[in-house]
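Marked as duplicate of an earlier ticket. Keeping the data here for the record.
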Amino acid sequence: MIRRIAAKILRTVSTSGAAILLFAPLMLSSCGEKKENPDPAPAKEVIRAADLSFLPEMEDDGIVFYNRSDVAEDMLLTLKHAGMNTVRIRLWHTPASSRSGFAEVRALAERAHGLDLNVWITVHYSDTWADPGQQQTPAAWQGLDLQNLADSVYNYTARIVEAMKPEYIQIGNEINAGMLWPAGRVSSMTNLKALLTAGSKAVRDKSPGTAIMLHLAGIDNVSWLFGQLQSVDYDISAVSYYPFWHGRDLAAAEAGLRALAGEYLKPVVIAETAYPFTLQWNDWTNNVIGLQDQLLPEYPATPEGQRSFMMEIRRISTAADRLSGFAYWGADWVASKGPQAANGSSWENMAVYDFSFRALPVLDCFAEEPVKGVDGLK
């Protein structure tokens, strides 16, 4: 186990200008002689990620993005310059369109690696969205018995890590109710653990330097399921946290993260979060968040309110040794299909670009060192 952690640290040092030393606090001394003057422990460096799964679609729709100097610039470069060090990308097995399919995700992962950014692949093990309310088995795997389904998970996961070489991989997405229904429902815990173990083993066999995440939605009431899954070989506990769904008390959220890290002694990350910069619309697609009562009173739906919320998320997601960062979800999901589109973005008011596709102040949350804003907050 210690060799694997050390190998992971060495790999991240060699593949990123900003090494993600998530596991340094867990390193133990070797069995050799104790040094009189041991080397200092490396400083913890956290994940500062954005989920950019929509970016290829946005670019194909002809959107030109602008940085904070109002200059047209590749979004990956703009966010990297702001301090983002990791790109999170969802992967669907055989989607109805090419979006989030294997070829598109591999191409985006290669772009990110070409800019010395780390890659975090979120494997949905489905042909479409997987979340607590739906975990549809890919059409190609339906009807398989448990052993053949586990073999399919192994082979597919092995193919992913061999082709994309991610620094991080999620074995499933928001698996509160299990995955690969009906076989892997949480009510069939033995089956669920067998499927997760198949995915984990593929990563260990084919890409031992890749860190494995298990991901649940919410912070409250997830400790039980993480406890049930401790026999699965994984590295990082990942949770989604949106205050409008998972609790409006940020102090309670921080306490929950600390408790989770302390109970299972694994790094914890907020894998998904976001906040609106306005309650206005930029197309005719219904927005997920559009009402005043969905907001936190201390964080208005303004560019500075969005920034202040994310600076607090940044703080609480790194407030203890094993609290190891965050990912902003839908950072790129702007209204790309025009102002009259009813099939556009339901998230354009929570992207990190405004309605003119210019980068917003919220990008400060990705900075390597905290940045003060006009409100004096960090």
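See parent ticket for discussion. The two ends are 37 Å apart (CA to CA).
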